[in-house]
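Q: Hi! New to this. If I give you a protein sequence and the SMILES for adenosine-5'-triphosphate, can you show me the bound structure?
A: Yes, paste them in.
Q: Okay, here:
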Amino acid sequence: MELFTVNRYTEDLKKPKTGTQDTTNNEDEILQKLLQKAAKRKRKHKESEVIEAPVQEDLAPEEAEPQTKEEPVEVLEKPQELVEEQDVPSNDFQVLGDDGSAAKKKKVEMQLPSWLAHPTIIEGGILQPEEEIPASEAIDQLDYLEKTTCLALKQMKIKRLFPVQRQVIPWILEAHAKPAPFRPRDICVSAPTGSGKTLAFAIPIVQLLSQRVECKVRALIVLPVAELALQVYRVISALCSKTELEVCLLSKQHKLEDEQEKLVELYKGKYYSKVDIVVTTPGRLVDHLHATKGFCLKNLKFLIIDEADRIMDAVFQNWLYHLDSHVKETTDQLLAGTQAPLCYAELQSSFGKQPHKLLFSATLSQDPEKLQNLRLFQPRLFTTVFTMPVIKDVNGDDTNPETNPDQGQFVGKYTTPAELTEQFCVTELRLKPLTLFALVEKYQWKRFLCFTNSTVQASRLTFVMTSLFERTTTKVAELSGNLSARARKQALQDFAAGKINGLICSDALARGIDVADIDVVLSYEVPRHIKTHIHRVGRTARAGKKGTAVTLLTEQEQVAFKKLLNDVGKGLGEEINVSPDIEIQYAASYKHALNHLRNRQQKEKGNKAALKKRVANQAMMHKKQENLVTDRPLTLMEKLQIKASVNQAEVLSKKQDETKPQNRKTKPQPKKTKKQLIAKKLMNIEN
Ligand SMILES: Nc1ncnc2c1ncn2[C@@H]1O[C@H](COP(=O)(O)OP(=O)(O)OP(=O)(O)O)[C@@H](O)[C@H]1O
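A: Thanks. Here is the predicted structure of the protein with adenosine-5'-triphosphate bound:
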């Protein structure tokens, strides 16, 4: 896309006239020509002023549209602007940054690649209640679903397919039914949260792999966090229950050795794969690519990236680079390097050698160009964002801009589930926790998620809310990256079982987590990005069920948040409020809660300072001992190593201190651990 046009005037200068004319004469001639041109223009504009209908050939198309009578000021002003421009002799060069020329610049229109501008629209966005589904749509009536799949779906209590599944599943199955050298187009699917994207890729890959003879890793599903990977693993395992396919979950929640045992086996000096489908996080995948002998991806048929925009945004140990070198030995690389095959011969040679890439997300539309890092093969986009492709006439102009102003605007638009109601509540910053408490009490929400922007805030808010809810039946807990994987799993389980009513979360878990029947999702702090908002509110109103999302805003935040929503074609929603005298009503308990928090923070500060001092003292003591024991002084490297190990110990104990607020009452025992650590380090140095 061209952003600027720079005209270089070179022609006449390059061709000096032959004979007696020197360069000076030539320049004079050019100057004459330019002055003539300027005079000609002046004449033209004088004429246009007379007839009061200016010819605006230099203006952008929308500016050149006939002016209505309601805007007389512009009609008079535009010729004036043009006349003023003529005062400076034109030299046919476009001066960058020049104010006059900037006014003339044509509006730069976003030109999407064809595959983004012409998506396949997923029809039937609203998920109908089960009772209203016609018999013809029941899963056993769908001829593309195998019996084993229907059986598994029935066990999962699924009676019909959702729109995204109805569209994507047959498409993938059909694409793979075509003979060589046909290569299926890679696909990107952008559909709202809770619309059933997991089954949309799980069903076809399980069906297409179920007839395999030898067990090899043929499908790799990559998800951003361990909790999500576990969730998808469960769905795939349930689908595979009626087949011979083996599924394996790789995530940091398990020991690497245990996973290695599940992945491969060594028989008579040769490694064999024990699994067909691998569900993993990017980080863990890289660990196995480096450390697991026999973990082979050369037979990969499907590469599925869920929450694709999130995964492509983050670096995640450069996982794509590592994956690339492990997939297929072909001349054209999977994820980087040469272009996708263009001619028949290339297509034939690459047939079956590259995995079919399937990308899914609810917010894929932010910057789909990023996905090009994956070298998608003739990608196809499936989306529920309802905008028609731009229809251009032969001159490249939009044929009907008035009737369809949103045409072709896929990028930057998001859809939330139709069943979601969005609301907001305006409050003061100092009263936010109290407002949150009052809202839960007023609406009697028994299952809610409350999002904050950081783990520290999640931890503090949980503390205050626990104190506020002390005398009620409502129980809240923290669910953030602060906690260990096990603690997070436990919190989610307790919430699902109804032992906890509210989870106060950081955004680490805003994506993809599927917990049934959440009454309301609360945003305690305004999300920094619109994508975060879409994923937060998407934890409710899932699978066709109704849900509510409430954002707590201060007066100032309200303006910024409204803009954030408007930019993607959304509105603030309905305003709700709590009684204005909540402050008086709950004054005592709020004061009590805040005092508690203050004490806790002071204690934490004290603990940290004491710990730091203790660690420093230990390091000093140790150094002295070392100098006594060994005659020789420590080398620089040894000193650095000791320092690093002490620092590491310090960071570790700090982390433990932060992540286990409930254990803070127990006496810290860092002395022994640190001694051991230093001793171990020294042993290593000496060895
Ligand atoms: N055909 C179906 N019938 C009934 N329930 C379904 C169907 N498909 C999926 N579900 C249920 O809908 C819920 C949401 O599905 P899923 O997690 O796949 O959504 P998603 O589109 O991936 O959402 P997100 O973008 O938030 O990750 C799940 O509880 C799932 O069991």
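A: The mean pLDDT is 77. Let me know if you'd like me to explain how to read the tokens.
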